[in-house]
Amino acid sequence: MELSKSEQSMYDGELGEACRQSMEILMALGKIYGAKNMIPVTSVQVAGVSYKTIGDAGLEYLMENVKNGAKVKVPTFLNPAGMDREQWQEMKIPEQFAKKQIEVLDAYAKMGISMTCTCTPYLVEIRPKVGEHIAWAESSAIAFANSVLGARTNREGGPSALAAAICGVTPNYGLHLDENRISDFVVKVNCDVKSNADFGALGYWVGERANARNPAFVGIKSASEDRLKALGAAMAASGSTALFYVKGITPEWKVKTGAEEVEFTKKDMQTTKEKLTSPEKPQLVTIGCPHASIDEIMEVAGIVKGKKVTCDLWVCTARKTKEKADKEGLTAVIEKAGGRVIADTCMVVCPLEEMGYKVTGCNSGKAAKYLANLCKQKVVYGDVGDIICK
User: Fold this and answer.
1) pLDDT tens digits, 67-110
2) Which of 137, 139, 201, 267 has its CA 20 to 30 A from that of 318?
3) Does CATH place domain 5-178 in 3.30.2290.10?
4) Are strands 169-171 and 38-40 parallel, antiparallel or unpaired?
């Protein structure tokens, strides 16, 4: 690989051990994927934040970086942690888990990383432009950045994203290159898709069939950013989609002549939703996977206003979005109904199984996948109003 003078200095250890180890990681990745050079990135999102997912080994790795003097060179923020740092006791998070989680967050802070713990950084003013190179690690954020914003990032792992933050560069391969941003898999949508649950079911169905290919959708008449993030998140969870196109909606549309075509019908929608749901009553309903926007919080507030929920209710969101919901009185409405707006975390990376939950409701295709696989939950899947009032 061709390295610039500053990159070579990092690789040679002239800028410290943390830079040397990080550049070694990036060089290894570049060689595996045939990158010819490094490219600068304007922002980084680091995964591996919840103590539930990284454990003591991950914490030790972070502490070693701190010991070696690691400092980030570009704006860097975090994926959701395993709890709301300000409300962990109200959430009934086990104390030992909370202690370890705070140690993880403190280690990241010492490296100069922002404590913005969210999978939707684009909702809190971190919005790269079309063609901008970034190194993001959370699967739904990657899909949104590549597809809806037109930025360029590969599916970074926790260590590679942290290495990119410390060095300020990433290997130039994969979705950073024009030739890899082409679809050869077209999905003809022949039914109405309106709610997040609809887009989540569509995404789940497509993700299982597209695998690592870039799907291109035709027939979707309209889609807000909330619907597009639900679509991308579900495809990234059931498959490994990092880039998709929606004709007439996303900023790019690059489809190969003779691409494979499949049809998604109303029956496919129904079958997928049935596959994702259990007939049981949820003990916990969770909204915000990916993290809820202010519009989604407003929708929940409208549904529960003047009522009392019959199970625990969490609306997961970014800290800045929660602060906005607080000011607009939405949090108070949800709390009066018996629910809670929580920040910095989500249902997937919380230790739900340690907290006694066994049946969890959601309107997210991504959450439906991971709640069952990673959290040992039975899932109740559906539209917000249906699962809250079930």
Assistant:
1) 999 999 999 999 999 999 999 999 999 999 999 999 999 999 99
2) 201
3) no
4) antiparallel
